[in-house]
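re: that chain from earlier
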Amino acid sequence: MARIEVHRLVVRVGRAPGDGLPEGALGAELLCLSAGASEEAAIGEAVAVLKRAGMAPLEVEAEGTLAERLAAGEEVDAGERALIDQALADNAVVVAAVRVIRD
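^ sequence. v structure.
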């Protein structure tokens, strides 16, 4: 059985009725931490969760697992590590940050 890891993803979403984004927004970029046995599984789960939440995912950029990011020399702060631990413990998708896109 494949080991579950948490993948850091940037998901760009468009507008959808009832998506919860502020009036005038064109969409948003969501920083997600998604647990999965592979990058593909983590992306699929994140997209499914966002669709169930009424969002309209358009594009996903995978930024790697914690191990991959550390090996590349990236610094990961304690706050993000705590969210990674939460996503792993709950086998879940955590939306860590939202950047609204406006015209």
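Helices lie at 39-52, 66-71, 78-90.
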